[in-house]
Amino acid sequence: MPLRLTGVRVGVLTGGGDCPGLNAVIRAVVRKAERHYNDEIVGILDAWDGVRKRNTMPLSVDRMRGSLPRGGTLLGTRRGSPFDTETGVDEVIASFAELGLDGLIVVGGNGSLSVACRLHAEHGLPIVGVPKTIDNDIVGTEATFGFDTAVQIATDAIDRLHTTAESHDRVLVVEVMGRHSGWIATYAGIAGGATVALIPEIHYDIDEVCERLIMRHERGRLASIVVVAEGTEPPPGSVETPDKVYDEFGHVRLGGVSQLIARQIEERTGYETRVVNLGHVQRGGTPTASDRILSTRYGLAAIDAVHDRAWGDMVVLRCTEIERAPMAIAAGRTRPVDMKLYREISDLFFA
Hints:
This protein is of the alpha/beta class. The protein has helices at 22-37, 47-53, 88-99, 110-123, 147-168, 183-192, 206-218, 257-269, 289-307, 339-349; strands at residues 9-14, 40-44, 56-59, 103-108, 127-131, 171-176, 196-198, 224-229, 273-277, 313-318, 321-326.
């Protein structure tokens, strides 16, 4: 067991997209750090930009009161990396010294953890990671906080959409988040009783989708819900799609695949088809009880990892236990949906 640190100064930042449960992680870190270790916690505002610019705020138990059920992040968040500029990494290293940080807890998704991994591996910075994304696609952990909330929001929406679809004998195509992995679409499709769930891991077959819808109509079920993850694509060359538009970080701007699928369904079946894009509502607002608990467990484990000098590790969930794993296993990778689960559930329920 590594020698524990005592009474240290630790930074915390949240990076990437906001996510229900971020404040719960910060709160847990602060409470255990202050009450158990007598640490000083420094909140870094606006992710890596805040590290470079030394934009900080003090965090304490009193400051975090009432934050457990709040969505978003009181520290703010940004995308981007210090590796994007010539001076970014040097600025981060200088900030560690200037701020007197003995360690940094990075709460983020694939991008933020990849940056944290490089800063530790290439420059020796003392960093511990906490995996965060509503997409549930970080390699090395069985669950990320925010996912349960996103699924619940999507399921609630699908429940409501069933009644309006049935009233008008419509097909409703519901677009949910999921750039590379279709965990939200799969789970919300199961929980919401969807007819079909389409995910990025598999190019969708519009003929098969329409066949399922027609079969339902012939059995007297004149309303259907099709759930589609935003990153889902048709087979290459099968249909004309708009040119891809990229953001400043080189990511494809997603959103709108539901419009394409709805148009294809209506053209092939003649069924009136409408689109509902849930968008950012999935990652806003109050986290579920499950996400609050997981976030709290992650926060407590993260400050313990700091005191064990477990630099380069992230805290993960495995078989209900919080453990540690190298951030390197998650860097630059995404965790796909379990295809065995998807096919079993698809055959049983999506029909």
